[in-house]
Structure formats: C-alpha cells, structure tokens
Amino acid sequence: CLATLIIMLVGDTYTLINYVSFINYLCYGVTIMGLIVLRWRKPKIFRPIKVNLLIPITYLAFWAFLLIFSLYSEPVVCGIGLIIILTGVPVFFLGVYWRNKPKCVNRLIESLTCWGQKLCFVVYPQCEGAEEE
C-alpha cells in the first residue's frame, strides 16, 4: 500500500499504467509456468480443467517476447515494477513464514487486519467487536 501511495504521488497516469501492466504480465507468466511445472511434477492430481500443454507453452513464448521487449524498451519502469513486487517479500515473511511470532506482533497483525476489513467493508465475524448473527 505504501508503494502504491508513493506511485500515485507521481501523478503520471501513463507511467502508473506501465508499472501495473508489467507487474500483471510478470505474474501471469509466472502463474502459467507454475501450471506447467505442476503438470510435469504432479501429473496425477485432480484438475477440473485440463488443457493441452501446447497452449500454455505457446502463451509463454509470446509472454517471454513481450517481457523481454518491455525490459529492453523501458528498463526503468520494469525495474520499479520489480521493486513494487519485492515490497511484498517482507510482508510475506512477517505474516506467513514467521510462525512463532511474539504475542504483541500477533495482536498488531490482528488489529491491522480487523481495521483493514472494516475500512473495506469486508469484516469477518471473528474480528473483535463485530456483531454476531
């Protein structure tokens, strides 16, 4: 959120669209790569939709071309996009990977979660102060 607020202060909508476009394309490609890796490593697991591997491989070929072209034509925008993605790494380690957190950190995370849910009108019933039905 902090990175998004800083980017919004830039004021140039075109640059903001470029940041978001690069991040989206990068995430889509990594997702398709994950699909191919899972199909290769775990071929027997249940899949509600199973497509021929030629489709994701073709998509990855076009994706790689677009990504390389983006990196070549606008390296600064792509670099800032990567930095925006990497701002999520500390959040992952603090919120997910670190299992034995002190109670004060757990309380802080829970209160921030509850505050964010109330702010976005998506309050989960387990949140303190929420009315039970």
Automatic annotation (TrEMBL):
GO biological process: D-alanine transmembrane transport; D-serine transmembrane transport
Domain of life: Eukaryota
Spans through the membrane: 16-39, 51-73, 79-98
GO MF assignments: L-amino acid transmembrane transporter activity; neutral L-amino acid transmembrane transporter activity
Keywords: Membrane, Transmembrane, Transmembrane helix
Protein name: AAA1 protein
